[in-house]
Amino acid sequence: MDEIGLARGTVRLEAYNASWPQLYEGEANLIRDVVHIEPSNVQHIGSTSIPGILAKPIIDIAVLVDSLDRAEEWKDKLASIGYWYKGMQPNMPDRRFFAKGPEDRRIVYLHLVDKDEFKWLIKFRDLLINNEQLATEYAQLKQNLAVGNENNRANYSRLKNNFIQGILNK
Q: I need a surface site. Which of 12, 78, 125, 160 has the fewest CB within 10 A?
């Protein structure tokens, strides 16, 4: 996974890398093997899952579960394959969060999410994959927001969410 990684809290966008789906598949297989979950409940999300779009070089994975309590049950298993359990984050109370890689080079973010509550993650990804104009608009927005937020990923993400919510509300 030398092709990916970004320091915690920073923003740097890169052109789409055709190796990202393969990197996701490798991680998804590890996750499926260690927690014994159905393949369809592990999904590549975020901009690295959208061909042709600018992205932070971190693979985002959603694991759709029936209960967020799975995080406590799985934290040791996921630790065995390199994931740090970060628990509930103040800006993401509706999911449980794991990170892989040291703070100066995070390579994967793993989001445990309720399978019924987070269909929007998959819907947004699929909208961008299937609508080149929308993907271009989103990439431009991300590029604009990255300027001035290089060391403030929380603000960058918050500002992006307005666009995401607007699209999903249409």
A: 12
Q: What is the pTM of this model?
A: 0.92
Report the distance separating Cα 53 and Cα 26, nearest Å. Answer: 21
41 has pLDDT over 90: yes
What is the average pLDDT score of the chain?
92
CA–CA distance, 128 with 22 (Å, rounded to integer)? 19
Q: What domains are defined for the chain? A: 20-169 (3.30.460.10)
